Amino acid sequence: MLTARRRVVATAVVLTGSLLLTSCGGSDSGSSDGKTLRLWHYEGPTSAMGIAWKEAIKEFEATHPGVKVEFEEKSFDQIQKTAPMVLNSSDAPDLMEYNKGNATAGLLSKQGLLTDLTDEAAKRGWDKKLSPSVRTTSLYDTNGVMGSGKWYGVPNYAEYTLVYYNKDLFKKYGIAEPKTLDELTAAMDTFVENKVTPLANGGAAYPAQQYLYQLALSKADRAWVDAYQLYKGKTDFHDAAWTHGADTFADWVKKGYFSKSSSGQNEEAAGVSFTSGKAPILFSGSWWYGRFKTDNKFDWGTFRWPDSKLTLGSGGNLWVVPKAAKNKDLAYDFIDITMSKKIQNLLGNSGGVPVAADASAITDPQSKTLIDDFNTLSKNDGLAFYPDWPVPGFYDVLVSGTQKLITGSEKPDDYLSDLQEAYDKGAPKQ
């Protein structure tokens, strides 16, 4: 999720041609048995992607008689931490969902652990179905930097961050939907006064660092993002934007907007605190949307982070084919099915942001709003990627640092110095 797109207009919903499935088997199958597709991903069963990919498995098995899909659900953190080791072993799956960006998919491509998908992308038309902005994270150069080079992954959805809020709790305390950041902070003050911790948070995973990055983005511009994510200039973690992000985050901890106990919680705990009706606000990704449609038992809504032209977002996580995969042609066929109109339309109507759907087939009103907001962000060049992308290991650095801000064991200035040191150590020398 978590985890660059160029300054290009991206359209999340585009018309596609008919799906062409190729037969299984072929010259690039290694020691393929041709009978099993081992698939790993970390999307929950009620998420839009989980729903769509379950249907894709049915479609795959129907179109490949005698072939079975062996699906293993992994957690985001599990794959994040173990992928390099697993992909360098005989236990590698045939197809895997993996985080996009320089520090993740880019690093694996540089290490030679991923299959080059360039020929397949051209042959099967994936390169035509994905807009330039969305496919940025599919391409990596020899240094593992996204945006150019060879295809090493295929996203079949897009994503961005937004504010989810519990309308029932807002109504209970007489709070209107915030339209500005001042109104949002006033709303959070009202919740704190009523002994309600306003923000669902997970300091042990990606949620906390994404709050802080969004606060920094509210004071940033495209040149700032390009310097940080694409090395097009110098990144100074003590500049006005990063300083505002760290200082404001620490201030919000002191004001009680985040709970101190959230330092040890992961993304699942953050999501559950919202779906349970405990936390009135969660700032996180569109990947939660489908699950919230199913799990929330209260009236809820969304709005974009106020007073900011930029927010976190990109094409979705990638389908990657490990270099050691034994049934690569089956993996290519499965990717093809997830890019079909049938699966894309299902993904869109289930609360996801499809990349190759038939726009007229998206009939759910909430889903249309979600997709329209993504298109507006993309059109206005508002997608700023994710904070952990630039350098290998940065995700863990950010997790550790934001945990210290939550517990108060580190000051913002020291936190920013730690980020600078880790970033400068991992970024390409210019």
Secondary structure: elements and pairs:
Blueprint lengths: L35 E6 L6 H16 L4 E6 L2 H12 L7 E4 L3 H9 L7 H7 L1 H4 L9 E2 L9 E2 L5 E10 H6 L8 H13 L12 H12 L4 H9 L9 H15 L12 H9 L5 E5 L3 H7 L4 E4 L9 E3 L2 E3 L7 H11 L2 H9 L3 E2 L10 H15 L14 H14 L4 H15 L4
Parallel strand pairs: 1-2, 1-3
Antiparallel strand pairs: 3-10, 4-5, 6-7, 6-8, 6-9, 6-11
Helix pairs in contact: 1-13, 1-14, 8-10, 8-16, 10-17, 16-17
General description of the model:
With 430 residues, this protein is an alpha+beta fold. 43% of the residues lie in helices and 11% in strands. The chain contains 17 helices and 11 strands. Strands 6, 7, 8, 9 and 11 form a 5-stranded antiparallel sheet that branches. A 4-stranded mixed sheet has the order 2-1-3-10. A two-stranded antiparallel ribbon has the order 4-5. 55% of the residues are buried. The N terminus is likely disordered.
Helical run tally: 17
- N-to-C span: 28 Å
The low-confidence runs, each spanning 5 or more residues with pLDDT under 50, are 1-31
- Proportion in helices: 40-55%
Coarse shape: globular
Order of helices and strands: EHEHEHHHEEEHHHHHHEHEEEHHEHHH
| Largest pleated sheet | 5 strands, antiparallel
Report the strand count: 11
Average pLDDT confidence is 90
Q: Give the amount of beta strand, in percent.
A: 5-15%
Radius of gyration (CA) equals 21 Å
Class of secondary structure makeup: alpha+beta
